[in-house]
């Protein structure tokens, strides 16, 4: 069975989560350091993950404002997803409304009583888990 990858794209990092082979649960995988200003999105590192994990679908979080408009962060996610589509024409790339996923991840980490330093290391990966789990729950 093919897996689904979930991505939370920021300016400095991309949180990466992966589904189990049945497509029921999302687990945090890694956080990639990027430089969006220099157009460095670590596509080749994602290639390795996609090939190793037999990924058939990539879900990119699309941050929207509460009024449903797309701002600078959303534009970055759209641009990033287009770059992925160029690199992976045979893989399904989907944008997924991720409103509040980072806040939900932050709340979960606060409830787990993690220090600010520890939270900052895992927040993007955790946000990717929330994005991917929301996507997977749509089908289950």
From TrEMBL:
CDD domains: YqgF (cd16964). InterPro entries: RNaseH-like_sf, YqgF, YqgF/RNaseH-like_dom, YqgF/RNaseH-like_dom_sf. GO terms for cellular component: cytosol. GO terms for molecular function: hydrolase activity, acting on ester bonds; nuclease activity. It is an enzyme of class 3 (hydrolase). Residues 2-105 form the YqgF/RNase H-like domain. Keywords: Cytoplasm, Hydrolase, Nuclease, Ribosome biogenesis. Belongs to the YqgF HJR family. Could be a nuclease involved in processing of the 5'-end of pre-16S rRNA. This is Putative pre-16S rRNA nuclease. It comes from Nosocomiicoccus ampullae.
């Amino acid at each position: 069975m093919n897996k689904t990858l979930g991505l939370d794209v920021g300016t400095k990092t991309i949180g990466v989560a992966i589904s189990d082979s049945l497509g029921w649960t999302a687990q945090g995988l890694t956080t990639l350091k990027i430089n969006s200003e220099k157009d460095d999105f670590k596509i080749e590192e994602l290639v390795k993950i996609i090939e190793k994990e037999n990924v058939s679908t990539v879900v990119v979080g699309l941050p929207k404002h509460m009024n449903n408009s797309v701002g600078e962060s959303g534009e970055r996610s759209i641009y990033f997803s287009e770059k992925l589509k160029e690199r992976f024409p045979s893989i399904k790339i989907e944008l997924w409304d991720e409103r509040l996923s980072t806040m939900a991840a932050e709340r979960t980490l606060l409830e787990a009583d993690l220090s600010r330093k520890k939270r900052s290391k895992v927040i993007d990966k955790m946000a990717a888990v929330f994005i991917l789990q929301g996507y997977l729950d749509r089908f289950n």
